[in-house]
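Consider the following assembly input.
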Amino acid sequence: MNFFDKALDLDSADEGHLRGHTLPEWANMVGPFGGITAATLVRAIEAQPDVHGQPVALTVNYLAPIADGDFDIHTRAVKTNRSNQHWIVELSQDGEPKTSATAVFGLRRDTWADTEITAPQAPAPAEIERAQSPFGVVWFDNYDLRFVDGAMPVHGAASDSSTTTLWVRNNPPRPMDFASLTAVSDIFYPRAFLRRGHFMPAGTISMTVYFHAGAHEIAAQGDGFVLATARAQRFSRGYFDQSAQLWGRNGTLLATTHQIVYFKD
Amino acid sequence: MNFFDKALDLDSADEGHLRGHTLPEWANMVGPFGGITAATLVRAIEAQPDVHGQPVALTVNYLAPIADGDFDIHTRAVKTNRSNQHWIVELSQDGEPKTSATAVFGLRRDTWADTEITAPQAPAPAEIERAQSPFGVVWFDNYDLRFVDGAMPVHGAASDSSTTTLWVRNNPPRPMDFASLTAVSDIFYPRAFLRRGHFMPAGTISMTVYFHAGAHEIAAQGDGFVLATARAQRFSRGYFDQSAQLWGRNGTLLATTHQIVYFKD
């Protein structure tokens, strides 16, 4: 089993209660990579016997760093409608809340459809060198990252633009699903690093993901690369936002995702 | 007292428990305007004696229509850190959950700052005629809306673009605060109406607001107009997203806001 699926391997305790544990392979600067935590919460809902539909929207709030070791996840279906279902999920360690989330699952049905935006221009992943983690962050090794634009500012150059575009896929490759797409939503390093040309304390406080693709469209991506592009809109008094799109190799807009990040600089 | 403040006039019951009631003046097609519900939840947190900091992020999930009458709001501070505080809020009627939300409140401190995007070009509000509600929706009367671009498609013309830009302020005017800015985040009619050139069943499922402005910057707007602009990125199988910015008259980016909407067409 690869480290992605191993991280999402939860034990079912009581109804709506699951147990998991952190893996050293997903370590970030403080606690695990936020994307793997978000993916774990999606998987926890998917594992519920009364789940209704597929992920449509997810908001994850990072309350406090998750320590190395076991964690508990409590899921609660707050409301089940004919065509959708609303969840509240909480992750804790020894009774201390660490992460909270709300999720909307829903049915998808045929309607008029259109993608109004276009993917950024990018050379094929094979034409770009694979990125190395600039400060030895462990979880980077679980991804194959190829920067098209806005790579980490290792040379100390500030940028006028906060835009980063990169190809990303799981390493080793695995078939894409809602959980892996959720994790990729948090793949971007803090936009303030790029604008300022240096590292600083920064971390995601809250992340929202809107899943535009259903299970079939996601499965059609196979284990291929996702083209991920993100930018900030405003940096002010310790916080900035980030809006991003995740595109399939075949040009499908799989997800749009937003977050608010704290920083000190 | 104007209808905005009247809608937010909550009675405190027990600790973390407030009671309010719907007003006919805020009626939408089904239940009250989602923006006034979101604003009410922000106000409920602001009213808590242990509140720490100002609104930074808010996600509101619309579970089921709120019926005319009384409602209960339960607020819970899940985690209080030195510089921020995480909340879970639930609105119910007769024990039936109707709305859930998570919110991050936080302190603001001096940092490097920049607004990376620019406001849309727009004539002054005085140069634009005030919009009338095209199908007699009651809550419209609580706002002065002046469309710059992408007004309601009353003539049945489909548009290639989902962008709407408008000036908006409370009617009667009142000083801007976090609650009123929250309500304005939901001011846009469904983007699918504009793209399709006709009305259809549609409603917000989940809305997220990131507050870029602190209390001083918001107060500096007085009771002035906000320039609000929104667009969709993808419409697919019953859902579409919307990303929007709210700009102060003085060019301050006050908030960015996102939502996922269901539609049938």
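The longest strand of chain A covers residues 70-80. Ask yourself how this observation constrains the way the partners meet.
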